[in-house]
Amino acid sequence: MEEATSSDLTCSNLPRHLSSFVNAFVDFSVSGLFFPNSKPNTPSAPTPAISTRFPAPSRLVAIGDLHGDLSKSLQALALAGLTDPFSLRWTGGTTVAVQVGDVLDRGGDEIRLLYLLHRLKFEAYRAGGELLTILGNHEIMNIEGDFRYITPEGLDEFKQWGRWFRVGLNMKHLCLGLEKPSDPFKGIPTSFPGVKKEFWEGFRARIAALRPDGVLSRRFLSGNQTVVVVGDSIFVHGGLLQRHVEYGLERINEEARDWINGLKGRRSPTHMRGRDSVVWLRRFSEGFNCDCQHLEGILSMIPGVRRMVMGHTIQEQGINAVCENRAIRIDVGLSKGCSNGLPEVLEINGGLDLRVITANTLYDHRRVMREEEKDGLALLVSESRLEEVEAVA
């Protein structure tokens, strides 16, 4: 075989390797993380299928809203036995974990959390487990360009991401044989009247990253479920009404995916908007006088489902349940940008054994209550409080 001459060593011979290197360089510069080569869902597919239903695992864990707080999120993940607190690697084995949305807003670690959860998905998949992430109302707001709940720290994080991403674009442009990537900042204003000038660059980067077909929204959010059924539990950020079930859970998931991928215009699908939408509903997560008969009717429409697990509404008393454990509310406001609550996670073993794993040292219960015990909740500190098991994050 003849030796390659210098004229043969053009970028056109190495586009995939060059792009992979640049992408890995940008990823590490932004998040400090590298990613495996193989992925559970192939990102090159324009519309990868979104699974809505998963079989019952031996162990199921649910984690509430994270809101841009990496430190507290890591505590919750470690509390659940899902990650090593030092290496940040997946340690959950075959556990299936569901995070019920609202990763964005109110904190300064939004991008780092998106990257971390993304990598943990790969690691969980390789271990025979699963990490499922759900769209919350704050993801929907940001994709639509509603930045009411951003923080200066969050804008700075996006500004830094934007700078590194441009470095990557410039590196790719140096190679004349490589097809020029599109510029995600194209068409975005360079100034924002009414916003302090120091935040303009962060605003531009946030729009480029999170708008429909944005760099980070397509990569990290388009594969998220809006509603997911795991065994006999259904997970949703806000809640479900009869009309949502009639519309079709799979249809809701697919329409959200298509919108985030830029195929459905700028506004979110109808079921994502308004106080009674799947990401905004609070009917079963506020107070303790819920319409349990109404909830039972909704659950009966979904074969095999016996409980709804929700985030969205902060539960200052911690994770709790109403309607005989049919409605479980798991948003403990753990982010410093919310109520700085103590980390707690919900664990469901074998579909029946429910417990709260908590960092709250006031609780030292070791009982695990089964749903068929009629007086189970009455034995606890609060009627609405699920069994708690103290753990150290």
Automatic annotation (TrEMBL):
InterPro entries to which the protein is assigned, alphabetical: Calcineurin-like_PHP, Metallo-depent_PP-like
Q: Which Pfam families match?
A: Metallophos
This protein's superkingdom? Eukaryota
The chain positions of domain Calcineurin-like phosphoesterase read: 59-181
**Which species is this record about?**
Dendrobium chrysotoxum (Orchid)
What are the recorded GO MF terms, alphabetically?
hydrolase activity
Could you tell me what this protein is called?
Calcineurin-like phosphoesterase domain-containing protein
